[in-house]
Amino acid sequence: MGKTARTLRCRAVPPDYPTPAAPTGSRPRAGRGTVVPVNYSTDLTPQEFAELDTLVGEWTHLPDIAEAMDIQITRVHRLMDDGSLLEVRRPEDRVRVVPAAFMDGAHPVDSLKGTVAVLRDAAFTDVQAIRWLFTEDESLPGRPIDALRRGQKTEVRRRAQALGW
Fold first, then answer.
1. Is 93 part of any domain?
2. How many independent structural domains does the chain possess?
3. Cβ pair 147, 141 in contact under 8 A
4. DSSP 8-class letter at 24
């Protein structure tokens, strides 16, 4: 006798079927294969940019980065896309600028890309990530960006991972 295929029968879930509520104080988590939309918008209001500017201090323009790295500007745009650098738009002229501390001479800070990936996994926008990197952290001696520049990427990423939980 030959093998017969089993047929799985599934009932449709009625629309009024109660679904379990998320615990209070938690945020939705992405399961495997679930896409969580994150807004990586770089547009800021003048007040938001002023607050960010007081944290960051010095900014660099994209053409200056391209010139320092001796690459085309489109390659700098790809560095933004893959998280090697983060940018915001100045509200007064909509020019894209990058915090100068993200550059280590003629190259981006090596450990920045992985840290940005961790922050994006925690659903941070690029502006929120910049704000977090430049905000003093009492558990680190100083700001996370300074710790990255000193080579303490493990400690910074450990704190960034904790933000996602």
1. yes
2. 1
3. yes
4. T
Taking the C-alpha atoms of residue 132 and residue 159, their distance in angstroms, rounded to an integer, is 11
Per-residue pLDDT at 159 exceeds 50 = yes
- Pull the structure tokens for residue 7: 């047929």
CA distance 152 to 160: 13
Tokens of 12: 């449709």
Question: How confident is the model over 122-148, as pLDDT tens digits?
Answer: 989 999 999 999 999 888 889 999 999
| Cα gap 80→111, rounded to integer Å | 15
Q: How far apart are CA 140 and CA 50, in angstroms?
A: 25
- Contacts of 57 by beta carbon, 8 Å cutoff, 6+ apart: 100, 101
Spatial contact of 156 and 115, defined as CB atoms under 8 Å apart: yes
Please give the residue range of the domain that contains residue 84: 46-163
Q: What are the strands, taking DSSP E only, across 16-156?
A: 59-61, 88-89, 96-99, 103-104, 107-108
Q: Under a CB-based contact definition with an 8 Å cutoff, are residues 117 and 159 in contact?
A: no
